[in-house]
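At this stage, I put together a protein sequence along with its fold in C-alpha cell form, as given directly below:
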Amino acid sequence: MISRDEAYGMVKERIPQQNLVYHCVATEIIMEALAQRMGLSADDVQRWALAGLLHDLDYAQTADDPASHGKVSAELLEGVLDDETIHAILAHARHAERETTMDHALWCADPTTGFIVAAALVRPEKDLSGVAVKSLKKRWKEGAFAKGANREQMAGHEQLGLEREEFLAISLEAMQKRAGEIGF
C-alpha cells in the first residue's frame, strides 16, 4: 500500500488549488477519526485515511468533465490502493453503490469538511478553535448556510451508527487537533 507521504505527494502534484488540498487533508483527518471511532485496525485506519486524502485526486483534471470525477482517480490509483478503497472513491462520486462502512464514511465526511470550514470562516477570528458542536448543530438546520455542504449526504452518518451530534463532534475535534494542516 502507498504511504501517506507518497499519497500527499500525489495530491500536491495533481491538485494546484491549495484550498482543495486542504479539503483533501481535512477529509483524510475525518476519515481517520471515524475509523478510530469504529475500532478498526491500524491498517484499516490507514486505508480509510488514504481514501479521504485521495478521494478528489482527479478534481483538477476533471474540472471540465465532472461526470468523470472519481473514475479518473480510480484509474490513477489502480494497483496503488486496494479494491475496497478504490470502491469508496468511486462511491463518493456516485459511480458505485455505497456498500461498505468506508463507502458511507467517505460519502458523509466529504461535505462535512466544507461545512465545518464555513462555520469557522463566519466567526470574527476565522478560526476552527472557536467552533463548537452546538453551533454546528444549529447551522445544520440553516439551509442557506454552507449550501454546498449537502445535508442529506452529511446525514450518511446514520449509516455509521452515529448520531448527528457525535458525528459532528468527531469531525470537528479531529479537524481542530490538526488545524495547522488545513490552513488554520
